[in-house]
Amino acid sequence: MRIATYNINGVKARLPRLLEWLEETQPDIACLQEVKSQDEGFPIAEFERAGYGAIWHGQKSFNGVAILAKGAQPIETQRTLPGDPLDEHARYLEADILGIRVASIYLPNGNPQPGPKFDYKLAWMKRLYARAAELLAAEIPAVLAGDYNVIPHAHDIWAPAAMLDDALRQPESIAAYRALLGQGWTDALATHYPQGGVWTFWDFQAGAWQRDHGFRIDHLLLSPAVADRLTHCGVDKDHRGREKASDHAPTWVELAD
């Protein structure tokens, strides 16, 4: 089983690239972020023609998450992250698919920091911590997949000194991410590539793609039962270099049956 996460940066603008990726790689489950579409505008017919069932949580112009399943219909279990009834951002969606609980996560960026956006990021991570603990306590095989907007280690960025003032590299952000791992979740790419040097994002600005100035912010966290099934993981880097592509590359894990 292949489970992937892909910040598509506009599902309508990138639809040809997204459908191309689905056809070429055939993930069983695909978690999308930054859909940037209201619910009624989500291109469900295109995905159904490609053989995928889908659920989505949209928002006009920004945010938005979705989950696709090949030859199956995701069974929604949670829409929005619990813990703040006033938070209307479309950043979390959770479903049961093929015996696994899967969440598509678009964690807040947090810039500029310090400030209210960074405070919101840290509060959101506390809510994610609580939800992740509930899933582990229920012993549900689960994958928390998405754009976490956290660079966990110095070797997860092209230059250790780059972006030290950015919200993605702040000690508080990193500590909150490591607290998640401390519950018992496995960071799949970090496990298979402990030396780092694997990027999932290259900015559109300053020739970042051409110079390979990237970093790793798209993560798949596996519960213990799922981590025991992990066989391979990687990044579909070549898809970042295609015409009118997202600034993220699809990131995936393969699990034994």
Automatic annotation (TrEMBL):
Site annotation Important for catalytic activity: residues: D218
Specify which residues bind Mg(2+) according to the UniProt entry for this protein.
N7, E34, D147, N149, D247, H248
Site (Interaction with DNA substrate) at H248
Q: Which Pfam families match?
A: Exo_endo_phos
The protein's name is: Exodeoxyribonuclease III
Query: Domain Endonuclease/exonuclease/phosphatase: where?
Result: 4-248
Which protein family is it in?
Belongs to the DNA repair enzymes AP/ExoA family.
Organism from which the protein derives:
Sphingorhabdus wooponensis
- Site, Transition state stabilizer: residue positions: N149
Q: Which UniProt keywords apply?
A: Hydrolase, Magnesium, Manganese, Metal-binding
Q: Where is the composition biased (Basic and acidic residues)?
A: 238-247
Q: Name the InterPro entries for this protein.
A: AP_endonuc_1, Endo/exonu/phosph_ase_sf, Endo/exonuclease/phosphatase, ExoIII-like
Active site annotation, chain numbering: Y106, D147, H248
